[in-house]
UniProtKB/TrEMBL annotation:
Spans traversing the lipid bilayer: 393-417, 586-610, 630-653, 665-686, 698-715, 727-744, 756-777
Organism: Megalurothrips usitatus (bean blossom thrips)
SUPFAM superfamilies cross-referenced by the UniProt entry: P-loop containing nucleoside triphosphate hydrolases
Predominant cellular place of this UniProt entry's protein: membrane
Domain ABC transmembrane type-2: 532-780
Membrane topology value: Multi-pass membrane protein
Top-rank lineage group of the source organism: Eukaryota
GO molecular function, one term: ATP binding
Stated name of the protein: ABC transporter G family member 20-like
Gene3D superfamilies membership: P-loop containing nucleotide triphosphate hydrolases (3.40.50.300)
Region of interest: Disordered: 296-348
SMART domains found in the cross-reference section: AAA
């Protein structure tokens, strides 16, 4: 069946009062005011479509068409009320008008130019935007908030105090030294409104400014809006859920499901649709839209067919109807000024435009539009302002900043006290068949050894184990000692044969003639609990080298050649490093760089995301700050912070933990700072690709462990599976870790290729991250 003609549809819907005006009103795709000169429009939207598509790393990209072919015309020097139920796309279209977002297709012209075009003043001082959310930093005072936005919009310093005082009085706000966070919700929204007014922009965009505002103050706000539009200085676009207060606007745009149902003066809308109030007008238009495009929605038809009481449920009824009352009391409007050309009057349009019945008009007078000049502060001024804001933010969050600065101290201490030290106090179950319990170990030392009547070597061995910080516990038999290991009471069972001391001397004296019995009798038997490889390695190493040392000292004491007890390998003075090098020396360079890299990354992500989440970032962008300025200002502050953290980490490692270092300190500091910068750039990239802390945490967690294990910090990269080795070298931390290790342990400088590569790879990664950030900022607009 062919779709019903609009007139039939209207009649079928019971729209007796709709008349021919409704019949010609487009219900989708809005209308074009063809006759209107573009110069008369402060804002023009044509054939606008907007589809939201998630660009988050972690969300499936599902399209949501929010604006569907919307046309909108806002005449200069007027108040334009944009009305519509929650979710119909009002905020979305406003964001496109202020240049905060970009349409999927269609055109927006704000103050005669495309938002964002050079010299357009939008985003910038051409527009005052009050978003729906607070978008102010709650840790600032009202005065600091005004100073911040006044600075960015070029309000002269000498005028700022005067304007601040006037706005506080006008909006009934508490004193300027009050913190935003300590104000009530309504007061906070009024501060937000004041911020939009502060620089007296030619275009004011207010997203529900009167929510939670006292009726009297609400009327004062409307009066003020009428004042500033009356002299033609300012154009206002306002959204509100209080449908009746919107009658005070010159023009109303009734929006539903991403399109404008009608756009006209409130009085004319009421007259045309023969309705008593705007809610009825809206309902009629909604029903018509639902009938004409039933696939779009059935809500309106349901509302009409069913319960009439549900009418306009998305709007708040006019509580005390202050607006209507005020309207009635207001003196009659003065005649329209001559500045509105006759050709653009409603009557003229009726004759010329096929859309005449809904053509742009106003039943309020408009004054001549005042030209304005773009007042754009320099980039340097913006940067200074942002740096001032970041510093103030840090000052207000001093405990958190102190935590970030002191965190490296704690981490260094933790690292030094937990990693790389040999385990102490390991219990050994000892069965000594040589002589039962030994005397006090002090008397069993080698220097008190009597070679003519040797005391028991096994007792000296036990004393040696105590010196190595083992805890020998004597058991009556080998079986009992092994049983202790099986029960987890000891890490090893140690057995000394009955004639251990004699057998040792016989083994040395008999040399090649020593019997098997002598050889076996001179051996200490050890049964290890090998369930912990590191413990086993420590025990094997300590007992082997401890035995050699004990025997060499014993034999030397008794005029034997101590070398007889040695093994035929001599480790000379090391070419690089120290004799008793520890795991700590190996792990420290990688650990220091990892700390610096990830702390810088975390600080950058935290700073940018907190600004993003508070909405302050978007608001700063609307008043003309560029994302590059924001990024660079963060880079400056974060770099200072990172240098401080780097110094703390290096002092902790080199001076407190006394990690061995033979390297050139200047290059070491330079590499650490570059790594911190690299981490910061990665943090910027992560915060520009993610929307919230949760996503950023996933990225940080996801990258942390692979970076650590693949960078060779924990284990030599040469020991990795071959397939991962190449990938490991390609990561930002790997070459830098090797480079720092060579500098510290070998004393090399960047004249050695292995050290130079660490610097070069870090610089390459910085360039990659920065380029990616700039690319994302350019292309990743929502
Ligand atoms: N960044 C975004 N990504 C995806 N969808 C979005 C985004 N912003 C808004 N939307 C969706 O677009 C639709 C219109 O949202 P919008 O905020 O423009 O509505 P609105 O008319 O201003 O509503 P309200 O009066 O409640 O503020 C909603 O369905 C919303 O979920």
């Amino acid at each position: 069946m062919a779709p019903a003609a609009p007139v039939e549809a209207a009649e079928a819907a019971g729209l007796e009062g709709a008349g021919p005006a409704v019949l010609t009103a487009p219900v989708a795709g809005g209308r074009q005011d063809a006759a209107m000169d573009e110069d008369d429009a402060a804002v023009l939207v044509r054939k606008a479509y907007k589809e939201y598509r998630s660009k988050s790393l972690f969300r499936k990209s599902v399209g949501n068409m929010v604006i569907r072919g919307l046309d909108m015309t806002v005449r200069k020097g007027t108040i334009y009320g944009l009305l519509g139920a929650s979710g119909c796309g009002k905020t979305t279209i406003l964001k496109n008008i202020v240049g905060q977002d970009q349409l999927t297709s269609g055109e927006v012209r704000t103050l005669g130019r495309t938002p964002g075009a050079p010299g357009s003043g939008v985003p910038g001082s051409g527009v005052g935007y009050m978003p729906q959310e607070l978008a102010l930093y709650i840790g600032f005072t009202i005065a600091e908030t005004f100073r911040y936005f006044g600075w960015l919009t070029g309000v002269p310093k000498e005028e700022l105090a005067q304007r601040t005082a006037a706005l506080l009085k006008f909006l009934d706000l508490p004193p300027a030294h009050c913190m935003i966070g300590q104000l009530s919700g309504g007061q906070q929204r009024r501060v937000s409104f004041a911020v939009a007014l502060l620089h007296q922009p030619p275009l004011l965009i207010l997203d529900e400014p009167t929510v939670g505002v006292d009726p009297i103050l609400r009327q004062r706000i409307w009066d003020h809006l009428m004042d500033i539009t009356a002299d033609g200085r300012t154009t206002v676009i306002i959204t509100t859920h209080y449908i009746e207060e919107a009658r005070q606007a010159h023009t109303l745009g009734l929006m539903r499901q991403g399109v404008l149902l009608a756009e006209d003066a409130p009085g004319r809308l009421l007259e045309r649709y023969r309705c008593a109030n705007m809610e009825e007008v809206f309902l009629k238009l909604s029903i018509l839209q639902a009938r004409t495009c039933p696939e779009d929605d059935e809500d309106a038809a349901d509302a009409h067919d069913g319960n009439q009481n549900r009418r306009g449920s998305s709007f708040v009824p006019p509580a005390a109807a202050p607006a209507a009352a005020a309207d009635a009391e207001r003196p009659p409007s003065p005649p329209a000024p001559a500045a509105v050309p006759a050709s653009r009057t409603p009557a003229a349009k009726s004759a010329s435009s096929p859309l005449a019945s809904v053509a742009f008009t106003s039943d309020r007078p408009q004054a001549a539009w005042q030209p304005w000049t773009v007042n754009k502060p320099s980039s340097m001024s913006n940067m200074t302002c942002l740096l001032w804001k970041h510093s103030l933010w840090m000052w207000r969050n001093l405990p958190m900043v102190a935590f970030l600065v002191l965190l490296p101290v704690v981490q260094c201490m933790l690292f030094g006290m937990t990693v790389g030290r040999d385990p102490k106090g390991l219990k050994l179950a000892v069965a000594n068949d040589e002589g039962g319990r030994c005397p006090d170990p002090v008397h069993s030392r080698v220097d008190s050894f009597n070679c003519t009547s040797p005391s028991l070597l096994s007792c000296r061995y036990l004393a040696m184990l105590k010196d190595l910080e083992f805890e020998p516990v004597l058991y009556d038999s080998v079986t009992a000692a092994k049983g202790a290991v099986q029960k987890g009471k000891a890490w090893a069972a140690v057995h000394f044969p009955a004639n251990f001391t004699d057998s040792i001397f016989a083994r040395v004296n008999d040399g090649q003639h020593a019997t098997n019995e002598t050889l076996i009798g001179s051996e200490v038997n050890v049964w290890l609990d090998n369930s912990n490889s590191y413990m086993s390695t420590v025990m094997q190493s300590d007992m082997t080298y401890g035995t050699i040392d004990l025997l060499q000292r014993t034999l030397g004491h008794c005029d034997y050649n101590p070398a007889v007890a040695g093994i035929p390998v001599r480790f000379e003075t090391p070419v690089y490093g120290i004799v008793n090098t520890e795991f700590l020396d190996f792990a420290a360079p990688g650990c220091a760089l990892t700390l610096i890299f990830f702390m810088s990354m975390a600080s950058a992500v935290g700073a940018i995301l907190s600004e993003k989440n508070e909405g302050l970032l978007d608001r700063s962008l609307v008043v003309g700050v560029t994302m590059r300025e924001v990024m660079w200002s963060h880079i400056v502050i974060q770099t200072l912070m990172m240098i401080l953290q780097t110094i703390i980490v290096l002092v902790g490692f080199l001076e407190v933990l006394k990690i061995h270092n033979d390297g050139p300190l200047g290059y070491i500091v330079m590499l650490c700072v570059l790594q911190g910068f690299c981490g910061m750039c990665l943090g910027m990239l992560v915060s520009s690709l993610t929307d919230n802390d949760q996503e950023a945490t996933f990225v940080a967690l996801g990258s942390f462990f692979p970076f650590i294990v693949l960078s060779g910090m924990m284990w030599p990269i040469e020991g990795m599976h071959w397939s991962l080795r190449k990938m490991g070298w390609a990561l930002p931390l790997t070459m830098a870790t090797t480079s720092l290790r060579y500098m510290m342990s070998r004393g090399w400088d960047p004249g050695h290729a292995e050290v130079l590569y660490g610097f070069l790879s870090t610089l390459v990664w910085i360039a990659i991250f920065l380029a990616s950030v700039l690319f994302v900022l350019r292309t990743h607009k929502r």
